[in-house]
């Protein structure tokens, strides 16, 4: 499906199509790569997977097997310019002939050189053309078989594979000797005339496309360029077929005759063209295929895509009927659907973006309006000024005693947590203060009252060691204070570390205890 409009199908697209997660799809794809059913390709711009010829064969065979048209595949019995022919069997093991069309196989390499990542159908030209060739062959086989022409029995067609009856004979080019060349000559000419009466010209009536059975009956196995008797060059093609037979019989069996059919002598009875169209090989398919054959360019139909767009749409219905059991949706129809879908997708996306932008704009406008209204509102302004003045009137000093209430609950909690840790430090500090006080009393340096002394001590704090000219502190006292300060600092550090380590140690200890408790019980 991805290859309908991608030369290399990117992984996300495969995942989306398969409805499987990318990881799973990538794994599946790598398995398929190992079996050469898909190939991974990396170019400067894009990475992706492409279906290989073998992969396409497997898809067709899978569908044919599930339809029970094919039960087995055997040896290769023929190689044509644009096909591989295999012997096969149905589910009851009756012989079959499987013809895998490879149209565009040679030109595919050229396409690769001028690779285009995403262009309608050009990318999968070989798939499309091979499929057209198979559809055409099957349609002709069916129509001719129904009119009792000597052709293999048409059994089924899927993608690029035609399933038909196996002819137990030899191609005329391999015949070295025949009993009656005149009889063969007459049979071949009669066949050309019979085709003409049904409005058809083979167009490539040669020894490679004709087989001879044991009883010397002739079977047409290949008619890739069959044209209508209404074709502008019909007479040329008709005469060329006749001349081909004359040359072959003369060259190989040395038989010549002046009795041969002329184009204007052929009386047309029926018109197989219309029946062929009804059988699924549409006018557009014929145009595409003929263009490829006529111009020898397997991309010729792509160049005419734009011109033929309308016709294709008309023809898609027939194709859809034909491929009812086929997993792959009709090319033309789906291409159009895909495009319309993707277009729709973009439109929806664009619409969404527009809606988002509009919404944003609307909200912005609304909020601006609200702001304006609020600033204009007298009620709001009065409330704001009253509240501000009330706040400024509040005497924070009065609230000093209630300070804890102003603290955030988390801060109160932390205070409590830290208190236990700090207790030792506080105790030491209190002791030091006490000693200091006593010492101050003893020295009696200042005439301050006890209250004032306390105040000054608390103001200066234990850290203060400043001395003025009027204050004489003995050197012993200075030493003591310094050592006390050092002790305090050490204690602080020790307490901090102890707090952290304790928790860790406690945890470890608990664990050890738990292990000990359960030792021998496990
Ligand atoms: N129905 C069949 N039964 C038996 N053998 C067949 C049948 N169809 C084709 N073959 C064999 O396969 C060979 C190739 O088939 P065919 O001519 O249809 O292929 P092609 O690609 O159209 O070849 P080309 O274009 O070179 O003529 C034939 O020469 C013939 O030996």
UniProtKB/TrEMBL annotation:
Residues of the RIO kinase domain: 42-265
Cofactor: Mg(2+)
EC top class, as a word: transferase
Acidic residues bias spans: 306-357
Gene Ontology terms describing biological process: maturation of SSU-rRNA
Ranges annotated as biased composition (Polar residues): 464-473
Location of the region described as Disordered in the Swiss-Prot/TrEMBL record: 306-381, 430-480
EC number(s) on file: 2.7.11.1
SMART domains, sorted: RIO (SM00090)
Entry's family note: Belongs to the protein kinase superfamily. RIO-type Ser/Thr kinase family.
Name of this chain's protein: non-specific serine/threonine protein kinase
Organism the protein comes from: Diploscapter pachys
């Amino acid at each position: 499906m991805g290859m309908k409009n991608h030369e290399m199908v990117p992984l996300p697209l495969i995942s989306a199509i398969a409805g499987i997660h990318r990881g799973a799809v990538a794994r599946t794809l790598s398995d398929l790569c190992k079996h050469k059913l898909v190939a991974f390709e990396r170019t400067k711009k894009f990475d992706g997977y492409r279906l290989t010829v073998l992969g396409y064969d497997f898809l067709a065979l899978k569908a044919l097997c599930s339809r029970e048209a094919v039960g087995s595949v055997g040896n290769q019995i023929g190689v044509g310019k644009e096909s591989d022919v295999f012997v096969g069997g149905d589910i009851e093991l009756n012989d079959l002939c499987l013809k895998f069309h490879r149209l565009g196989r040679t030109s595919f390499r050229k396409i690769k050189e001028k690779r285009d990542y995403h262009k309608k159908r050009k990318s999968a030209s070989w798939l499309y053309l091979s499929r057209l060739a198979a559809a055409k062959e099957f349609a002709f086989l069916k129509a001719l078989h129904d009119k009792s022409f000597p052709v293999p029995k048409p059994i089924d067609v899927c993608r690029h594979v035609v399933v038909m009856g196996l002819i137990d004979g030899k191609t005329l080019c391999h015949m070295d000797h025949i009993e009656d060349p005149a009889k063969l000559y007459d049979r071949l000419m009669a066949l050309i005339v019979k085709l003409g009466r049904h409005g058809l010209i083979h167009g490539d009536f040669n020894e490679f496309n004709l087989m001879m059975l044991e009883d010397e009956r002739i079977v047409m196995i290949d008619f890739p360029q069959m044209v209508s008797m209404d074709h502008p060059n019909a007479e040329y093609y008709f005469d060329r077929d006749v001349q081909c037979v004359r040359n072959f019989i003369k060259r190989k069996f040395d038989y010549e005759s002046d009795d041969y059919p002329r184009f204007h002598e052929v009386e047309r009875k029926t018109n197989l063209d219309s029946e062929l169209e009804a059988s699924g090989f549409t006018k557009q398919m014929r145009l595409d295929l003929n263009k490829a054959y006529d111009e020898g360019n397997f991309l010729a139909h792509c160049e005419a895509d734009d011109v033929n767009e309308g016709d294709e749409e008309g023809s898609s219905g027939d194709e859809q009927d034909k491929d009812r059991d086929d997993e792959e949706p009709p090319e033309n129809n789906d291409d159009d659907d895909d495009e319309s879908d993707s277009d729709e997708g973009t439109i929806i996306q664009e619409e969404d973006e527009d809606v988002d932008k509009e919404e944003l704009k609307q909200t912005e406008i609304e909020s601006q309006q609200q702001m304006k209204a609020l600033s204009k509102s007298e009620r709001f302004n009065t409330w704001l000024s009253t509240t501000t003045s009330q706040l400024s009137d509040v005497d924070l000093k009065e609230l000093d005693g209630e300070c804890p209430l102003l603290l955030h609950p988390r801060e109160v909690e932390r205070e409590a947590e830290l208190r236990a840790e700090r207790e030792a430090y506080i105790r030491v500090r209190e002791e030091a203060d006490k000693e200091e006080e006593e010492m101050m009393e003893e020295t009696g340096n200042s005439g301050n009252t006890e209250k004032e002394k306390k105040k000054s001590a608390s103001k200066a704090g234990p850290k203060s060691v400043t001395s003025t000219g009027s204050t004489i502190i003995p050197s012993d006292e200075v030493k003591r204070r310094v050592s006390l300060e050092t002790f305090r600092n050490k204690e602080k550090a020790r307490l901090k570390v102890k707090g952290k380590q304790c928790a860790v140690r406690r945890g470890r200890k608990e664990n050890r205890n738990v292990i000990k408790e359960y030792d021998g019980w496990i």
